[in-house]
Amino acid sequence: MHRIATKPGDLDSEKKLESVRQTPADILFISTADTELSGLAQVWGKRFQKKARLTLRLMQANPLQHPAAAEHYADNVLCKAKLAIFRLHGGYGYFPHMLDEILHIKSHGAKTRILVLPGTDEWDPELMNFNDYSEPLVRQMFSYFHEGGVDNMELAAEAVELLLENKTGGFPEALKIPTFGWLKDKSGKRNQKSKIGRVWITFYRALQQTGDMAVVEALTEALNKQGLEVSGFYAYSLREIEAQEELLRKAEMEPPDAILTMQSFSIGTGPSGGSMDEGSKTRFSFLERLNCPVIQVPTSTENREAWLQNPRGFSASNAAMSVVLPETDGRLFSTVVGFKQEQEAAPELEFRSKRLAPDAKQIEHVAELTANWVRLRRTANAEKRVAIILANYPNKDSRLGNGVGLDTPASVIAFLKDLDKRGYCISSFPGTEPGATSVSRAESGATVENLEEKIPETGDELIRILQAGITNDAEMSYGKTPEQGISRERLFEMIGALQEVSQATLAKQWTHEVADYVPVAGKRFGNIFIGIQPQRGFGLQTQAIYHDPALSPPPEYLAFYQWIREDFDAHAVIHFGKHGNLEWLPGRSVALGSDDFPQIALKTLPNLYPFIVNDPGEGAQAKRRSSAVIVDHLTPPLTRAGLYEELDKAERLLEEHAHCETLYPERAHELEHEIEHLLEHAEWSEELPEDDDPLNALSSHLCELKESQIRSGLHIFGQLPEGEKRIDFLLSLLRMPSVERPGLLQALLGKEPDFDL
Length: 757
Description:
Residues 143-751 form the CobN/magnesium chelatase domain. Helices cover 39% and strands 16% of the residues. It is α/β, with parallel strands linked by helices. It folds into five domains: 27-164, Rossmann fold (3-Layer(aba) Sandwich); 180-368, Rossmann fold; 388-638, no CATH class; 642-702, no CATH class; 711-749, no CATH class. The strands form seven sheets. A six-stranded mixed sheet has the order 5-7-6-8-11-13, sandwiched between helices. Helix 23 (616-626) links the parallel strand 22 and strand 23.
């Protein structure tokens, strides 16, 4: 696992101690939802302000995750209130200190009446341990906030007044509010024919109910500027069956080209997240059935300044809710588009409301990324231009196209042939004639002599073609004429448009003279460009540079991706095989900005990434830091290691000893001496486990070695192992038990998964 610039954190201790400067009041309302607090400030603030005998305080709950803050609040504010209502997203798991403090002050005689409600749409029975009221009453209070809206806030206020009068009945019923719906199109252009594509934005109903729509409106406007028709859909949760059915109904009539969702957590593939296809017995998630890219567009619960100063980009809690859980649905991660900023103060409530504020640059990035995915979807295959990027680490010609567990050259050839069948233009450049001059090569004075490049037949042939041109190996590239590249003038014009901090970093870390013409390593086959990813830097310690979390890429690195974006005008890039170096460039861990180098290099190009299935940790870096769509591929085929030479001889001696031990004890004694003599001269005898019986120790060691799984080749993308390799691979996968499934041997023996063989 490689490193990126970051620091450790967790959901509790990461919370810095924030002083809670609030005086006691009759009524306390503590919630994790800023939208809810803002609504209550408007509704309850006016209502209770008229009642001079009752005072109200509103409080954002998140600072109370810190144990010292929770203790201070309980001792100085909570214990002096008449009624305290908590709405805690995450329940006891997120707020153990605060909830334990409730029990503590109650045990010391505090008279405060406590009402603890779930912060989501799901009932949390654990919270009843901290309530002073019966479950039916708690559920009734919960219903007001579950339904939401101004009217239900008024009804909740009536219920609070009844509670303060020590009444536990006669509460008004919560009004049923639609949990989802479509925004009305204010522009009047909804029914016009879309020029580029159709996009949906899904967001939380609470934003619509409280009018906290600045981010949604800014995102809609940015997408409109890209020529996209936008429909807004609000929902309490996308896990609701009815909300899913409405989206599927709409998709049948007006299928979207992309969906942007601002909603956190995962939908999953359970009863509310998927359906069973009767024919294939395969579970499809709700998002898969929509059949388009689903792009996660998170907002932060913190302010913009916190994001700017955090090398992780997001706090751990924001990352968990808005990145880690949503990506289990297969959503494509973009970047953060809005932050919670403090708005108007309410002095009588000792509360300052927070609303979402859009970030124009971040929104522009997401809108352009979305438009590029729509462009990719709507462009005919014959017109699509795709850049396939091969890793090259270490930077030698002998390591072109290296990928963990993957025969990358052979995989690329198989992939090219499949593209050819699907109508992609591969064999020649459309609309050109032999002898024509390309834009990039005009800068170097070279001409295109052969535009009729055919698809190589083998991976070896592809590598020879690439090695014949410019590569990262300076010694092997000496004297070769580049086929494409970028002029120094254009490169530094692009660098000059970067943020000042990024320009300063490049200028400080790379002081060498950049050539007048920067070559781009790779070969073009019609509308497909196969490029060699440039090296992270130069010098003697290239391996250290490759994984350096602080060193920016040299200008020549940026030139490579600039050529792909501007000259080749790619519709998409494919980084083929684990793993390249783009996702490890310096910058935030997640929720990147325009000063982070993965975004500087790739910009808003759709990025696909065939990646070995058994390393999700490193694949996640590409998802989170370069908006990659990870396409998992199988590991190499596995087989049993078996035994050889002295190991094989030792096993045969043990087998003979087992046969002779009863019938021919004298021969068994001779065999013991032979085994002892063999072990005296075998280097691996030191690895034998400790055992009172040396023969038993040898048997266990040989069995473990023999049954060990080893690779029997490399995987070719999109192809299953054949023949004995397939049988061995399946046996290797099935022989080991998993959580609830027995291994093959346990199953044959009729034993449980935990049976020790």
